[in-house]
Amino acid sequence: MTRVLILGGSWFLGHEVASQAVRRGWEVTTFRRGHSGSDVEGATVVRGDRTKPDDLLRLAEAGPWDLVVDTSSFVPRETLQMARTLEPVTNRYVLVSTVSVYEGWPIEPLSEDSVVLDCPSDAGPDYGYDGDPGPSTYGFGKAGCERAVIETFGRARTAVLRPGVILGPREYVGRLEWWLRRMDRGGRVLAPGRPERAIQPVDVRDVAAFALTPSLTGVFNLTASGHETMDDLLRACLGVTGGKATLEWITDEQWLVAQGIRQWTELPLWRTYKGAWAVDSHRAVEAGFISRPVADTVADTWTWLTSGGAAIEHERAGELGISPQREQTLLGLWDAVQLDHCGSE
Predict the structure, then answer these.
(1) Taking a C-beta distance cutoff of 8 angstroms, is the pair 96, 71 a contact?
(2) What CA–CA distances, in Å, run from 259 to 86, 222, 324, 326, 329?
(3) Which of 49, 58, 220, 249 has the largest CB neighbor count within 10 A?
(4) The model scores a pTM over 0.85
(5) What does the alpha-carbon distance between residue 340 and residue 345 come to, in Å, rounded to a whole number?
(6) Cα radius of gyration (the chain)
């Protein structure tokens, strides 16, 4: 019987990891405050706050575990304390990090050998700085969390997962949901950039399955192959919502930038930087990572939404999306640009 501890386990990825572990017949414990989200049926729940030493000691008493999957580490010094508390009662530590730990993201293509941001393992929540387009305090913090776990457990007992964008049912940021709702509304939809631009989002269920890989150790990027495109994503959204919308591609990305469009948020998943969707994940594939087609993720997310599914309310979701008025204004301006271009030929 495999015994697994999930730090988190109620929102998105953590909930999926716990659910899959229960379905495998494992003995599952989740550690969470219980302020939001929902417990996974079949899992033992330990209530507590990772910032409180007494809660961590009480958690350790519920061990031992074969592995811990940490989906909610952001502050290095908190992760360091967590790792030190769990090290005597846990064989392996699986930390979910991010591609934002790389110095070059999203500017340049990346692999696991790319340079990582420097952050001490005992840093607080405000370590680092926010640049444009990077780096970010978020990335610095995650880099420090990685260091905290590796310093405590050693590389031979640690797996660090660095996903890019994770989509699927229960996604609380709402990137895919925004596009689905927009397609469902119908009309002319501003489709940003080149239709053939490669994208690499991964499904939450595939990330969860990889996190539970037996004996997994090492550092792994988790992104899709890059064979699918923005056109594949948006057409999948169009198809599952009934085809009421029309995609209007604005292929001049610099023109869009000049209009003041906020990349990544105002038009979710669109970014001009060449490294945003150029992350090599062959190491994870060799270790068994399988990424399903984006059309499957789109279809299952729409089914979840239309069946009454609702994500946890999160402040990041409020940053997403372009207003209908601004969208149509930009499309009108682009129409004029195209007419002027045709008239000059």
Answers:
(1) yes
(2) 50, 33, 15, 10, 11
(3) 220
(4) yes
(5) 9
(6) 21
